[in-house]
């Protein structure tokens, strides 16, 4: 079975990026292992796909129909961390990526990285520029600003990323309808 565990630390939790960009997911390991597996869960296809296994000697074994040019595993700091590099990103790469190690006949999974690839990232809404306050805002304390943790918790990011994903998925049928309509008009004009 699959078990989430404390032996793996996977970062970041979310990646939102554009088509043709590249990205990297890091997996840090706290115990002896024979190598790292990488999987992708596709919500759209309801499919858990094996991407690549990289052993401690740096030899990679790829899954069926997985491009070696697209996915590369880099090992760092004497087998204690591995990073999955994904290049030429496309919306078909959307999904949750998991690093994994085999431990006493169980597959231990990392926490997962949710990757969203969009043709264009949404622009922030245009607002009139307001002058910045001279005094610091009370809730941004020095200790909080100095903390290495990201200021946004998953409670903020997950609904935000889900909203962006729903927005993007909502655009797909509209784009498809427009494409069919344009094609029909083109055929009507050029077909006569």
TrEMBL record:
Coiled-coil positions: none
Please provide the Gene Ontology terms (biological process) for this protein: adaptive immune response; regulation of immune response
Q: Which domain of life is it from?
A: Eukaryota
UniProt keyword list: Adaptive immunity, Disulfide bond, Glycoprotein, Immunity, Immunoglobulin domain, Membrane, Signal, Transmembrane, Transmembrane helix
Residue limits of the Ig-like domain?
12-110
UniProt keyword Cell membrane, yes or no: no
Q: Tell me the GO molecular function terms.
A: coreceptor activity; MHC class I protein binding
| Membrane topology of the entry | Single-pass type I membrane protein
Q: List where in the cell it is found.
A: Membrane
- Key word Acyltransferase present: no
GO CC aspect terms: cell surface; membrane
- Transmembrane residues, as ranges? 155-175
Q: Which Pfam families match?
A: V-set (PF07686)
The protein's name in its UniProt record: CD8B protein
| Annotated source species | Daphoenositta chrysoptera
């Amino acid at each position: 079975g699959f078990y989430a565990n404390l032996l793996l630390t996977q970062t970041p939790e979310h990646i939102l990026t554009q088509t043709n960009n590249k990205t990297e997911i890091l997996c840090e390991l706290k115990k002896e292992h024979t190598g790292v597996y990488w999987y992708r869960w596709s919500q759209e296809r309801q499919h858990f796909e094996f991407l690549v296994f990289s052993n401690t000697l740096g030899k990679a074994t790829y899954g069926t129909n997985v491009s070696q040019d697209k996915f590369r595993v880099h090992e760092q700091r004497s087998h204690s961390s591995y990073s999955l590099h994904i290049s030429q990103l496309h919306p078909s790469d959307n999904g949750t990526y998991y690093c994994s190690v085999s431990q006493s006949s169980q597959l231990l999974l990392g926490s997962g990285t949710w990757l969203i690839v969009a043709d264009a990232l949404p622009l922030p809404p245009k607002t009139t520029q307001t002058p910045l306050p001279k005094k610091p805002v009370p809730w941004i304390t020095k200790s909080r600003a100095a903390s290495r943790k990201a200021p946004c918790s998953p409670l903020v990011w997950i609904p935000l990323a889900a909203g962006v994903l729903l927005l993007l998925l909502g655009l797909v049928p509209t784009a498809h309808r427009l494409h069919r309509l344009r094609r029909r008009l083109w055929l009507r004009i050029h077909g006569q």
